[in-house]
Amino acid sequence: MTAFSAILGAVIVGGVLWDAFETVILPRRVTRRFRLTRLFYYYTWKPWAAVSAKISNRRRRESLLGLYGPLSLLHLLALWAVGLVVGFALLQWAAGSNLEGAGTSRVFATDLYFSGTTFFTLGLGDVRPDSTVSRALSVLESGMGFAFLAMVISYLPVVYQAFSRREANISLLDARAGTPPTAAELLRRNMDHTSSLENILHEWEHWAAELLESHISYSVLGYFRSQHDNQSWIGALTAILDATALCQVGLERAPGRQAQLTFAMARHAAVDLAQVYNTPPHRGAERLGDQELQLLREQLAAGGIHLKPDPALAWKLAELRAMYEPYVAALAERFLVELPLWYRPADAHDNWRTSRWGGAMTA
Predict the structure, then answer these.
(1) DSSP assignment, residue 191?
(2) Topology, domain 2-153
(3) Could you tell me what percentage of the chain is helix, strand and coil, using 3-state DSSP and rounding each to the nearest 5?
């Protein structure tokens, strides 16, 4: 029993420390299936998403989904702390529960209490280690307690800074591509100035690269919802992919080279993030059928933009879409977000118009 407790305690402590290292410090994707963090998100997100999906009111549903990311991060940190406390309590128990103090007895509850006060460095002194092994374990655990506190202090600001950078660029799309962002609106608002469109696509090439890097390093960011219900990182990524696909095959005056570069980076982000969140690619709902393509043509034409009169245009677009749509469709299904249309919906309004007073304003 003693040997089993020692092995179990060592496995718990080692497993928690390694999982925290991979999640917080290691800046690359971990492909191993069995991970504490992966299991935590798998078994907490599914019921949370299932409950949220039953809420018909979009605002309330998004509010509930928006709580998951921050709460899950705090609960994950708490899970690690509990795991370390229990693990060290098992090691103290295996070492013989050599603890002394008023009213102490050789029961696991005493080891658990002592482990908790040591890990959180309370230093109450009512229970003290009474052997060399117990003292060594106490020193080791208190050091880990300090390290854990330092990790939390440094980890949370980094996560929120990455979230802020992601959302700042998504907010820029409200003026540049409408809300929700669409390829047609992005081109319509910026096509008159080719250099402006090229600069925008260049900026979004960098945004896609930063999105990939930050979400691989801190995968919890994927569960953080945007400030507005009609915005999301998946929707922004999809709109940019749609626009760059159109620029490559459908428009004559488009910055083709920059469109290719931005498309390649955004597609890379979509494919790799589908792997990070374990979402196998699949065909979602058809986003650009014949009717949608005709609406896209009409909306672009109303803005003075005409697609190439190429009978193979739909086929060429389908070829490019096949490179990313299965991945963004899988991500959208996982995170319960809606993919944007290719054209601007008739009832769409920029977010500044959706305030309490926005409807009474004129552009």
Answers:
(1) T
(2) Helix Hairpins (1.10.287)
(3) 70, 0, 30
